[in-house]
Amino acid sequence: MLLRPARVSASEPRFYAGALGLFVLFTAAWLAAWAMIPAAVLGWQALVITSGSMQPTIERGDVVVAAPYRGEEIGGGTVIVFEDPGGLGLVTHRIHVVLDDGRFLTKGDANARTDSTPIEREHIRGVGRILVPLIGLPSQWLRTEPLMFVLFAVSMALAVYMARWATNDAFDPWLDDVERLRHLRPRRGSRRGARPPLRHLAPQRSALTVLLRVGIVVVLILAGAASAPSRAAFTASTTSNGTFTADALFP
Amino acid sequence: MPSGIQRSTIIRLAAFGAATLLISLLVLTGSRAAFTAQTNNPANTFQAASGVTLTDGANGTTMFLVTGLTPSETVENCIDVTFSGESVNADIRLFSGTSLAGTLADALNLEVKIGDGGGFVATELGGGEGDCTGFVPGATIYSGTLADFVATQTDWSAAAAGWNTSVQGNVQTYQFRVTMDPAADNSYTLTTAGPIEFVWEARG
């Protein structure tokens, strides 16, 4: 039986574009997995870094997954998450020096000076273990830069839409028409006939795969939003001094 | 066409494999770089261009070098502090970087006010001179003996809040007035307070 060229053409470039969309979704899924699975399975804590004092190693929008601190020996150089003595929430900084009394002097990598208040052991909440780049950005954008968030949402929606070009066999350019026909369904509004012409056929949609893809994106956004914010606080300081001496004779 | 089926499957698997490889490498190398314990913190040499800096007009030099104080005598100085760097909402506080105040500190009353105008002019001899001309006082952030200042305002968390800014180049002037207790007796003759380090720290 001779088939006319299908209305639903299957071009190779479109398949590759679909593969790109698929790649973006897999990337997003992996980022979300790294941020969420250690937290869910091991009970670790995921923290979105909201400021940049740990640059260049930890950027704003990265997620630090921290293992709970159980009093083990930790030394200089360890990145810890602690409660800010000034009551500003959780801070992620590096231990600069362990003091003789067992407290820790901490410092942000980008800060010139150490934090002024030494940290007690009981204020340490966790020890940095896994650094997941970028994943906290969408939730940050949602709060501070709506335009960036819209851009992000649009590109993710595009990736979800494009991904079907690589997953739906109706678009597979290396299948012949007979094979592809099996993955087509009548277009909405076309008359039901024994066998509608190909131009009245559209690719079959699987609600499950669409849900799965949208799910990945939602999880990606939530992964950042669900993580507790932790500031990598900037500190800077300047000093001056004074010396006062009393007179030898008071009047 | 069986080879065709294989081809599309291979491309799908390649997309999955590339994403897996990319993210695993990013996470593993990033975690290693950030969390491997380093006793010698390399970041000391790294000055983030986007960080926060705080500078004062005295630029690390001495604000007060006063001798021959007698009871009731008042000395004052003004010093300008500039915030610059990343536009984070910084909370800037003043505290003591010194833990030993010295005998005379008990007999000295310190009052610190934040305001606008006036400032510190550094001289070539390494010292400088505060100039309170044009100073418009705002809030008083500390009032008490110098000994108490050293004992209580020990670090940023313990210090009084007084200045919040996210504005680049925002300047505030701090006025220090030190008055010797009129009731100070002769036991204080030739005693000394300091050198006391005044530290401004910005956190954001």
Structure notes:
The complex is a heterodimer of chains A (251) and B (204). By secondary structure, chain A is an alpha+beta fold. Chain A is 34% helix and 24% strand. Chain A has five helices and ten strands. In chain A, the strands form two sheets. A seven-stranded mixed beta sheet of chain A has the order 5-4-3-6-2-1-9, with helices on one face. In chain A, strands 7-8 form a two-stranded antiparallel sheet. In chain A, helix 1 packs across helix 5 (207-226). The N and C termini of chain A lie far apart (122 Å). The longest helix of chain B has 34 residues, at 2-35. With 204 residues, chain B is of the alpha+beta class. In chain B, strands 1-3-10-5-8 form a five-stranded antiparallel beta sheet. In chain B, strands 9-4-11 form a three-stranded antiparallel beta sheet. In chain B, strand 6 and strand 7 form a beta hairpin. Chain B is built from two helices and eleven strands; from the N terminus they run αββββββββαβββ. Chains A and B meet through helix 1, strand 6 and strand 10 of A and helix 1, strand 1, strand 2, strand 3 and strand 4 of B. Strand 10 of chain A pairs parallel with strand 2 of chain B.
Summarize the topology.
The complex is a heterodimer of chains A (about 250) and B (about 200).
Chain A: H1 12-42, E1 45-49, E2 63-68, E3 79-83, E4 90-98, E5 104-107, E6 124-132, H2 137-144, H3 146-167, H4 177-181, E7 184-186, E8 201-203, H5 207-226, E9 228-230, E10 235-246
Parallel strand pairs in A: 1-9
Antiparallel strand pairs in A: 1-2, 2-6, 3-4, 3-6, 4-5, 7-8
Helix pairs in contact in A: 1-3, 1-5, 2-3, 2-5, 3-5
Chain B: H1 2-35, E1 52-56, E2 62-69, E3 74-85, E4 90-96, E5 108-116, E6 119-122, E7 128-131, E8 136-145, H2 146-152, E9 161-165, E10 170-180, E11 192-203
Antiparallel strand pairs in B: 1-3, 3-10, 4-9, 4-11, 5-8, 5-10, 6-7
